[in-house]
Structure formats: C-alpha cells, structure tokens
C-alpha cells in the first residue's frame, strides 16, 4: 500500500480505519491543487457499523462516493462518520488553491458536507470503480478538478505556501511566527486564510499542534500529558487540556483511556 506523508496525523483511532484504505500522492499536474488522494472501500455484514473519528487537517476535501459527489468544508472540531454496508470513496484532500473553485468564502462551509451537482463525474467514476477499482478513477477526478479550478495564480500559490509552512514547521506557535516564516504581513495571512482555507491562521496552527499532540499520545509507550503539552508548545497542562477538550470533546487523559480500550 502506497501511503502519503503523516498518514495518521488526523486519524484519532488508526486501528479502526477500514481494511482497504489508501493514500497516494498526486501526479505533477495536480500538486498545486491536491495534497493527496485518499481511497477507501468497505463491505460490512448487516447490522455492523464502523465509526471513524477524525481531527481533520485545516483544509477542504472533494469526495466522489457511492451515492454522490461531495465537498467538505473546513472542520472546526473533531468529527466522526459511521460506515455501514458496502461503499467506497475516491477523495482528494484539497490544497488551498483549489478551494475557490467550489466556494467564494470557505468560512460559510465550516463543518458542512455539501452535495455537488456533478452527475457526469459521478457516472464516470462509478463505471471505473466497478470495472477496475478505486485507483482507476483517480485520473478522471483529477482531470475534472483541473478543468474546474484552472491554473492557480500567485495569490493562490501564496496560500498553498502558507498552509505548507504552518503544517510542516512545528516551531511555529503564533500567527506572527507564521507571517515571518512566509515573508508576509499578519494582515495578508488573515486574508489568505479567509479566502482559501476558511479558518483563521491561529486555528490552523492550533490544529497542527493538537494533531501532533494526539499523535504523540498514541505513539509513546508511556505518555505523560504534561510532557506532551510542553513538547508541543502549550503553556501548561491545563491549557493543553482545555484546547484538547474544546477540539475533541474530551480530555487528553480520556483520550488515552479510549485508546487503551
């Protein structure tokens, strides 16, 4: 299975992923529009439900699935989806430059999953999936996305750079840090984030820190909540617990208990 970078950063319970789940890198023509493709298929007996818990990246997603074509706006908190029966998804974690092709203001799409009117795309993808599997459909979705989004301009590429720096530089803990690393003003950061992400720059930074902290809690053999808080730039354990509970709905200690159970 060919997986993308940091594959389980946003997945809160990786052991509960569907058996057939894959992330693959985009082709060169799509690197300014897609972070990675994510492909999933499931087939459960009647009465079986698998709940997936995710603390999503600060981004939007395009998904062609069994019944529809969907656009997921940026998430402000952890979420879940219940999988039942048989289904599949050919999804793209979109880069900021692709977002204006779907909405002029992604802030209005926060925590929403919108159905897109794209019957020809859905029909073409379904035919390929049925005949040759999920990977065969990636190229069709990519061509459709390129036609819809067009060539990113300088501002869109600056938004991509902002998101990349925020995600890849763990030393960035404030909006001022991010602005300096990107070589732009704080005001410019806020403008780019509003148009291309739908979350504030601070929310983007906080999401990455919480994702990294949750990953550390999962990965360490005997994790200490206090040490994880300090390691990821929170002022103290109480601050970390407050932010963690606000985003995930429960404390770091409760999360550890859930992982063990």
TrEMBL record:
| Pfam families for this protein | DUF6597, HTH_18
Q: Name one GO molecular function term.
A: DNA-binding transcription factor activity
Q: Which domain of life is it from?
A: Bacteria
Ranges for domain HTH araC/xylS-type come to: 168-258
- Keywords associated with the record: DNA-binding, Transcription, Transcription regulation
This chain's protein is named AraC family transcriptional regulator
- Origin organism is Propioniferax innocua
